[in-house]
Amino acid sequence: MRRSAVPSAFRSFAAPAGRAGVRLLGLAALVMSTALPAACGGDDDNDDSPRRSVGSVRLIGEQTLPNDLQVGGTTVGGLSGIDYDPASQLWYLVSDDRSDKQPARFYTARLSYDLARLQPVQIASVVTLRQADGSAFPNRTAGGVVPDPEAIRFDPSTRSLWWTSEGDRALGLDPFVARANLDGLLTGTLPLPAAFRMSPTQETGSRNNATFEGLSLSADGKSLWVSMEGPLYQDGALPTPSSGSVSRLLRYDRNGSVLAQYVYPLDAIPAAPAPGRSADNGVTEILAIDDNRLLTLERAGVQGADGTFTTYVRLYQVDIRGATDVRGLDRLAGASYVPVQKRLVQNLNTLGLKTVDNIEGMAWGPKLPNGRDSLVLVSDNNFNATQITQVLAFEVLPE
Description:
Layout: H1 26-35, E1 56-65, E2 70-71, E3 74-75, E4 79-85, E5 90-95, E6 105-110, E7 122-128, E8 149-155, E9 160-165, E10 176-180, E11 186-189, E12 212-217, E13 223-228, E14 245-253, E15 258-266, E16 279-288, E17 293-303, E18 309-319, E19 341-347, E20 359-364, E21 374-379, E22 389-397
Antiparallel strand pairs: 1-22, 2-3, 4-5, 5-6, 6-7, 8-9, 9-10, 10-11, 12-13, 13-14, 14-15, 16-17, 17-18, 18-19, 20-21, 21-22
């Protein structure tokens, strides 16, 4: 959640769409769906996405990484996004280090868990995120396109990666959605709608540190979802302990066209900060379930009198059916629209964990031995000695 005009040399691009799937019909399908509630299958005859259902989640286990863990000469921390490649059984985790400690980067890792336990996380390697010319991204003192990586997704159709950057208002750098090879080399970015551009001087467009925090491939892999952490200036005020707010969900096709935008209703901040201290709440990650439903993480931080933050994390399911497509609305304040529907799946603060840290990453994992989906979350420790890098594994119980 740390808080880029993108050079004109960065281009949007097309990528091949997935193959159409075939839905099982009749008694055989009924038997399979009864035996395995989360079994694979299409939602319709033209959908090759996995069939998933999220009723609730059950915590399998927790692991933490040492704050001084070093891999390839880099400090492992700031882990703001996570995703999984089933073919290689490899996980990808992006750090939100803005090339301040070491060059902007992601890690690969091995995770092992079953229905009873999550084993210690094994960080396998570090990969530098590189610009189109092959150079590492600069930090804020060097100038240029300073990245603020917040989300990462593995794309099985092209065996490449997508990642987001939040931009920097003071530097006049817009948020962006990037695509990279597995070696970290940038291969393109998606166009940014004009309403989302950063202004260093005017209260319009994206707020600093409240932009492209979440990213997900659609369930069929043919489009991308991107979530704003907080509201655009023209969409309304930030959440407070007494009032919620709104953010936006964007859906891009692979050519960079915006297919739709929807309004996401943000909770009020769950508690009041100490006098003179700060608090916030926003969307830190999204994950597609099917063509109409997504999981969202809302994370709030409330600062106490001693300066430390208490973190509140809630997992929601949202449904876009019936919601207004607000692509044509550059300003939500005062406008008429229907937001997405939202259902609480799990309040992480009720799990009995000693600490709920700054959870920012979320990904589907491999199927569990009982055929159900697994879900993995990771926290961003902000390279802060008082925080932890926390990895949580869940069993997904279907509706």
